[in-house]
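Inverse folding, one chain.
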């Protein structure tokens, strides 16, 4: 029987050298790896394989304009993510991808853009923010709302400050610590202060599922139409190419039809517990 050809990089990890790393918070590290030359869109993810540990999906968190590196931000929650967080310059990692759908930047042209991120959910949205800031004149009012557990958990702090000059940035924490002068409370509490016109806005939301559920409810109350809101669903994955069914929820394979979905297509998924 003839061997089945595998598209390179889709089922077989290709080795990539780690070019650099930076600690973001106590739990999160940003890792830059050498590119394979594959184009990618903001919102897409790679399967990263830590040798001896395993393979997990991680979103691309870097600047789409930087062709010399592909950047991921990883929060250590278990064996594989912890191994990825220990990668250092010169180490090797296995990569498959990029996979998945992207954020609707083209649909946002000329419209207000509202970005709502919770925790490490800011990582998949950071490439969008780079683009919005770079092409600022192509969009209406742009607002980034970001919530973290504590001030020490805030990702990309220096960039948040830099972006403030170009877009509206509001940051809140669940629990303040001494010296924190910003907002305290859940990220949805910032929504009523966001300057956006629900009739002409595109919203992009990523974070823990409970945060996304409350954000969608509040956006609906504010009059934001569901088809103009996009969310990124996280589900455990194995193949990432629509073969194994591991990420299946109802009729949707999250790896192939997501992870970025229009919210009216998947709001019900937020109420489905992972099996
Ligand atoms: C499309 C996509 C993009 C992602 N992007 C990022 C990213 O940019 N940065 C990042 O840090 N993480 C991201 N994740 C989550 C990351 O894949 C998981 O944290 C990782 O798989 C955990 O594996 P582990 O072996 O370290 O931990 P495990 O031992 O497998 O899990 C540790 C804990 O995390 C939970 N968990 C595992 N996988 C997921 C998941 N996919 N969704 C929700 N909970 C999970 C488990 O239930 C368990 O409670 C993404 C996930 C998906 C599906
Ligand atoms: S992870 Fe295998 S079908 Fe989606």
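Residues assigned per position:
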């Amino acid at each position: 029987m003839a061997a089945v050809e595998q598209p390179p990089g889709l089922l077989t990890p290709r080795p990539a050298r780690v070019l650099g790393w930076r600690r973001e918070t106590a739990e999160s590290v940003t890792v830059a790896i050498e590119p394979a030359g594959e184009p990618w869109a903001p919102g897409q993810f790679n399967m990263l394989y830590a040798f001896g540990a395993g393979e997990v999906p991680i979103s691309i968190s870097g600047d789409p304009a930087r062709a010399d590196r592909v950047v991921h931000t990883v929060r250590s929650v278990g064996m594989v993510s912890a191994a990825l967080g220990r990668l250092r310059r010169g180490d090797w990692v296995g990569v498959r991808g990029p996979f998945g759908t992207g954020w609707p930047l083209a649909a946002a042209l000329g419209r207000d853009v509202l970005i709502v991120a919770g925790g490490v959910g800011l990582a998949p949205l950071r490439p969008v923010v780079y683009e919005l800031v770079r092409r600022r004149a192509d969009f209406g009012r742009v607002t980034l709302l970001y919530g973290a557990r504590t001030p020490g958990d805030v990702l990309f702090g220096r960039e948040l400050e830099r972006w403030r000059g170009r877009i509206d940035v509001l940051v809140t924490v669940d629990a303040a610590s001494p010296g924190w002068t910003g907002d305290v409370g859940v990220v949805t509490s910032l929504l009523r202060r966001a300057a956006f016109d629900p009739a002409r806005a595109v919203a992009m939301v990523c974070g823990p599922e409970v945060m996304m559920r409350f954000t969608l409810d509040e956006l609906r109350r504010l009059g934001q139409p569901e088809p103009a809101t996009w969310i990124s669903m996280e589900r455990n994955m194995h193949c990432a190419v629509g073969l194994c069914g591991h990420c299946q929820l109802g009729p949707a394979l999250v790896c192939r039809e997501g992870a970025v979905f229009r919210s009216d297509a998947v709001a019900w998924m937020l109420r489905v517990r992972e099996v």
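The first strand starts at residue 14 and ends at 23. The helical segments are 79-85, 105-108, 122-134, 157-163, 209-222, 254-257, 263-266.
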